[in-house]
Q: What sequence folds into this?
């Protein structure tokens, strides 16, 4: 068979608060596809194997950015060199930066799934519209966004603030800016520098130094509408990487430019587009973010461009 297969993460923050979400999704999906709940990585791999055997055309993911990147990682590992199904991000989580960046309309998972079912049924006369983006392979994970330093620190503070929502994220940013102005304790927590180096595929290198952040993306946005990776599509099969060297105050002054997808002023950041980078932390510990999920590892971290995926945005 072909059709729509939906993976729902019952442990995502939004779905865990709404235990009836799976039943509503199943009712809307009906005979138009298959719904599976992934409560563990092992379950996710079994689901991917089933969907590959059934030749699913569209993979719907009900979760936020974190669920998306974990699901994509599992499916890439199972599918191997075979192309993934088209991806439909159903916004079932609290962070939906990737969906925002590629132009997926806002709405609840049930509404987005209903529209997807209608569009899929009419695909013979109105083909599904998708956009294509590369994912990055970051260590053993795949995702669209990466960040150390203040990027990791901001998210750690955001999750510390209670139930994470876009409003909490905006308030965390506002508090961080205010703390920067008065040199408060919060910004000292958020903006602990990343000391390390970056080696690129062409042999160029960012020498060991303190960075406010090293960050990269294969989409332009990083959250709350800020678009630092405006060069993400400049070269085929590459990501846009920033090594931010500004002080916290200097970075705050650059936020309007980042919002407008403009380059930061001279002396504030290093930039590169590449298909491969090796990041090494001076103290041997890497604390970083992938699509909103926080990770920590020892030793150097290799980043490469991963597969190009198709993301459904309409019909």
A:
């Amino acid at each position: 068979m072909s059709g729509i297969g939906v993976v729902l993460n019952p442990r995502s923050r939004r779905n865990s608060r709404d235990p009836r979400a799976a039943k509503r999704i199943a009712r809307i999906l009906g005979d138009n596809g298959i719904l599976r709940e992934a409560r563990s990585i092992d379950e996710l791999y079994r689901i991917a194997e089933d969907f590959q055997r059934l030749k699913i055309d569209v993979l719907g993911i009900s979760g936020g950015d974190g669920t998306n990147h974990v699901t994509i990682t599992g499916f890439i590992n199972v599918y191997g060199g075979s192309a993934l199904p088209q991806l439909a991000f159903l916004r079932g989580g609290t962070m939906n930066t990737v969906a925002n960046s590629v132009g997926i309309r806002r709405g609840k998972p049930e509404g987005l799934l209903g529209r997807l079912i209608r569009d899929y049924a009419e695909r013979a006369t109105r083909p599904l519209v998708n956009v294509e983006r590369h994912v990055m392979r970051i260590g053993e994970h795949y995702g669209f966004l990466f960040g150390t330093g203040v990027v990791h620190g901001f998210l750690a503070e955001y999750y510390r603030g209670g139930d994470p929502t876009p409003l909490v994220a905006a308030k965390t940013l506002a508090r961080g800016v205010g703390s920067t102005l008065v040199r408060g304790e919060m910004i000292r927590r958020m903006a602990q520098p990343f000391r390390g180096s970056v080696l690129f595929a062409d042999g160029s290198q960012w020498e060991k130094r303190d960075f406010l952040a090293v960050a990269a993306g294969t989409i332009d946005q990083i959250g709350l509408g800020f678009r630092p990776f405006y060069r993400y599509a400049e070269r085929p099969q590459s990501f846009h990487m920033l090594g931010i060297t500004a002080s916290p105050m200097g970075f705050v002054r650059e936020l309007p430019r980042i919002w407008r997808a403009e380059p930061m002023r001279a002396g504030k950041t290093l930039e590169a587009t590449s298909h491969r980078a090796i990041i090494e932390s001076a103290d041997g510990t890497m604390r970083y973010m992938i699509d909103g999920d926080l990770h920590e590892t020892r030793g150097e971290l290799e980043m490469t461009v991963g597969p190009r995926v198709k993301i459904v945005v309409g019909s």
